[in-house]
Write a structure and sequence with these properties.
Layout lengths: L5 H14 L9 H16 L4 E7 L2 E9 L13 E7 L8 H15 L4 E7 L3 H9 L3 E10 L4 E11 L2
Parallel strand pairs: 3-4
Antiparallel strand pairs: 1-2, 2-3, 4-6, 5-6
Helix pairs in contact: 1-2
Length: 162
C-alpha cells in the first residue's frame, strides 16, 4: 500500500463491510460511524503490512497481516491475517484467494510455520473460502470488537505454512 492508496483502502473496507452486514445491530448509525472511522484511521496509519489488489489502475481489494500478540513488532513474526476486504462488485472473482495466497507466501518465506485468520462466526462466505484454502477451525468464542464497539462471535482458523 502506498500513501496514494489510503482513500481507496478505507473506502473498500467500509463498503465491503456495509455490503455484508450480518447482524441487525451492525445497522445502527453509531456502529456504522465507528466502523467507518476505524477504516479511515487504519488506512491513514496502518500498523500492519497491507497488500492491495489492483485492476485497470484501480484498487479493488486489500489484505493485511500483523502479529496477533504483538502488533507492529516484526521481530515476532507477522503470522495473523487481520483483514481481507474486496470491493463489492469484485467479490467472488478470486481476489480474496489471491491476496491470501500472497500473504501466505510471505509468511512461508519467513518460516512462520502457522498462519491464522479470524472472521465473524456467521460469515459463511468467508468461512467457506478459508476452509477451501486449507485453513481449519481451532477456536470459537466471543471477543470484543473495538471497531464495532460490540462483542462479536468469532471463529479462528489456522493453516500450516511450512
Amino acid at each position: 500500500m502506498t500513501a496514494a492508496d489510503t482513500g481507496a483502502v478505507a473506502l473498500i473496507g467500509f463498503e465491503a463491510w456495509k455490503s455484508n452486514r450480518i447482524h441487525q445491530n451492525w445497522f445502527e448509525p453509531t456502529v456504522e460511524t465507528r466502523v467507518e472511522d476505524s477504516f479511515l484511521t487504519f488506512a491513514g496509519r496502518p500498523d500492519a503490512e497491507v497488500l492491495v489488489a489492483v485492476a485497470a489502475n484501480e484498487v479493488i481489494g486489500w489484505g493485511a497481516r500483523d502479529s496477533r500478540e504483538h502488533p507492529g513488532d516484526r521481530s515476532r513474526g507477522w503470522d495473523y491475517i487481520s483483514d481481507i476486504w474486496i470491493a463489492p462488485h469484485w467479490q467472488g472473482k478470486g481476489i480474496g484467494s489471491a491476496l491470501i495466497g500472497e500473504l501466505l507466501s510471505r509468511m512461508h518465506f519467513e518460516n512462520l510455520g502457522v498462519a491464522s485468520i479470524e472472521t465473524d462466526a456467521a460469515n459463511d462466505p468467508a468461512l467457506s473460502l478459508y476452509k477451501k484454502l486449507g485453513f481449519t477451525e481451532v477456536w470459537q468464542g466471543t471477543d470484543f470488537s473495538p471497531s464495532l464497539g460490540l462483542d462479536q462471535a468469532k471463529v479462528r482458523l489456522e493453516k500450516s505454512i511450512l
